[in-house]
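Bumping with the actual sequence this time:
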Amino acid sequence: MTILTQMRLWRALPRGARSIQLGADTTKLRGSAHHTEPFAVNIHKDSFQAFKCDPPALEAHVTREELLAMYSQMQTIRRMEMAADGLYKSRFIRGFCHLSTGQEAVSVGVEHGILRDDRVITAYRCHPFVLLRGGTLTQVFGELLGRQSGISHGKGGSMHMFTETFRGGHGIVGAHVPIGAGIAFAQKYTGMHNATFTLYGDGASNQGQVAEAFNMAKLWDLPVVFICENNKYGMGTSAERSSANPEYYTRGDTIPGIQVNGMDIIATRQAVQHARKWTVEDKKGPIILEFVTYRYAGHSMSDPGTTYRSHEEVQQMRNMKDPIRGLERYIEGWGLASSEELKGIEKEAKENVNKAIEEAKASPEPPAEDLWIDTYHNGEAAPVRRGREREEFMMYIIGEILGNSRCPCRKGVSRPANFKDTTQLALGA
């Protein structure tokens, strides 16, 4: 038997006592569905695997309203990402761009399992969370196109988008995970009754700073939920080839973990609610969730996604385990909405995306002077800055130099005695 054959055989075998049930429609109705009241469903028993903790309950309660809201959000995110793909290929979007098509049950499931005042932070596959955490389609597309209507005023691009409760959008693999732990530290220190949900990919799991964040989070029992989005491939390398232990939910050592069927929206929501209760209500410290999911596109727009996996593999996931189609089967099968109603929701999502693209295209590019602003969040900028070189020891006020009323450091700051000389020096006079 060749080494390659042995590797393929090993990859086909489950590493644990049983394998996770990966499917989009494995949850079953318990009793009857209701249009106006919550009703019970049974999540498949193999949707969760637990490490040093109990798994989430298999009985969950859902409502028609919430399922339809999930469907609308997932359709909007799918259409948004598909449109971004087209815009990139048409050269309207430049630079890096990472899409999340196929992984919609993760972002939407997280959002429906947490509270509005909780915090979320993730890596560069961040577009869905901007939309779910207070941003608009126009702001997302404006940012992708580098326009003033963008949520970062066109200066951040695909990987750097933020809202008040969504802390980014970060381009360095794994580097944001300690930031997530730091946000959780601030929540605990100030007595907030909330958690931080820190998402990262399977490719980032082998980064040293992730392990360091785990250690500090457990040492101080911080209210942080670490979420590994295991979409099977870190860039172009499969999880089994890159990781000695690809069961990422067990990577926390003393931190408990749960592996979750990340293609079933009800299972993902249930796991997130369970994790939030663990760390916020029960105050048991951090916990790890590993969502086993799948991305249809390549790692980024420069990756065709076909050199390290077969076209048949991708199509099988699309046809058999698509999270949107799975939710669609729930809604129709349980008599909550007709296929015509769901088509209407899909059509509305497409129209909203198209409208937002036109609004973003109509927005101007940021002017050159905007390079000097938004370095800090409004109200948090230092009133003075040092000069460019050691000899430029005098301090000057950036807003005064530029005459820019948008600069937050200009208001309420007295002018230094040597301001005139400093201005001339800073401008090279």
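The tokens above came from a reply further down the thread. Confidence is low (pLDDT under 50) at residues 1-17, 393-429.
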